[in-house]
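Weekly sync, protein design subgroup
Attendees: M.S., D.O., the rotation student, P.L. (late)

Item 1: inverse folding check
M.S. brought a backbone from last month's batch and wanted to see whether the design step gives back something sensible before we order anything. D.O. pointed out we never logged the input encoding, so this time it goes straight into the notes. Structure tokens as presented (291 positions):
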């Protein structure tokens, strides 16, 4: 394991990494002032690190210039920054190289249709940034491939985001820890259980708003008050039950609505033009902050 990957693993251990959305208008325009204030708010409310341009941030759809500006805003906040690479038509190797030049601490590599190990190796050789492998519900990682990825010297950890596959999540956490890498939960609908199964950090889209709800679960888990952990987990589950539901890709829009309701972003920038259409009555659920 490369020293840089070890260092990132150690820095992120126990950390809540907010998978930040990218506030934009219905036509996809990004106001960098809005983005900067939004990212700063996530950090001030409890996020110890940021993952930008990942699945929640619609990174695969954004132009290189916009991506660069978002990365710069995140890096300026002084917390560890992971950047999503791949998942779209643009070259993930070039995206990783740009992230390195802009001061990112690591990259979250989207799962690919082809040889995942070869992709990670190309990204590593080009950018020399520590990598977080990604076991995503839309393209789960076969166990044999996962084992090989976790032997790569540049892989600092693995994020599992399987949503409803409890056994797959448990397997991923076990294999990651056995390999000496950081087991990261991205399980918005199995958050508390994934901690009990051994996850050592969190990188979740549910922390794109109401950051304190997710942070409270981690804080309670580190403590000794079982009832506090139960209550914090139940609160997060209530939020997840209305944000991470079918159509699942609609969760980005729901989190943006919630961010607007909390005053984090203007309503005009709480749009996800890349997600599925959602009924107007669903938007009414997020007209005010949720408790």
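Designed sequence read out in the meeting:
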């Amino acid at each position: 394991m490369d020293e840089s990957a070890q260092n990132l693993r150690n820095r992120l251990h126990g950390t809540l990494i907010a998978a930040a959305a990218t506030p934009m208008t219905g036509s996809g325009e990004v106001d960098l002032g809005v983005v900067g204030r939004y990212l700063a708010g996530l950090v001030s409310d409890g996020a110890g690190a940021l993952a930008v341009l990942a699945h929640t941030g619609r990174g695969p759809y954004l132009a290189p210039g916009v991506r660069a500006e978002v990365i710069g805003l995140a890096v300026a906040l002084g917390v560890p920054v992971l950047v999503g690479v791949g998942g779209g038509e643009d070259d993930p190797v070039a995206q990783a190289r740009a992230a390195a030049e802009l001061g990112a601490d690591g990259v979250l590599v989207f799962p690919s249709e082809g040889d995942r190990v070869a992709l990670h190796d190309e990204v590593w050789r080009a950018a020399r940034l520590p990598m977080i492998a990604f076991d995503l519900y839309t393209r789960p990682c076969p166990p044999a491939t996962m084992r090989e990825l976790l032997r790569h010297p540049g892989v600092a950890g693995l994020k599992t985001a399987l949503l409803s596959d409890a056994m797959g999540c448990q397997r991923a956490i076990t294999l990651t820890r056995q390999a000496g890498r950081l087991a990261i939960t991205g399980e918005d609908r199995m958050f508390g259980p994934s901690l009990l199964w051994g996850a050592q950090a969190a990188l979740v889209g549910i922390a794109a708003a109401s950051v304190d709800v997710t942070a409270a679960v981690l804080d309670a888990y580190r403590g000794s008050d079982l009832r506090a952990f139960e209550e914090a987990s139940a609160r997060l589950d209530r939020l997840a039950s209305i944000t991470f539901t079918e159509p699942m890709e609609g969760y980005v829009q729901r989190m943006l609505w919630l961010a607007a309701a909390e005053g984090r972003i203007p309503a005009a920038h709480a749009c996800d033009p890349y997600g599925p259409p959602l009924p107007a009555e669903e938007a009414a659920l997020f007209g005010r902050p949720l408790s």
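Discussion: The chain has a mean pLDDT of 96. Residues 27 and 273 are 7 Å apart (CA to CA).
Action: P.L. to compare against the previous round before Friday.
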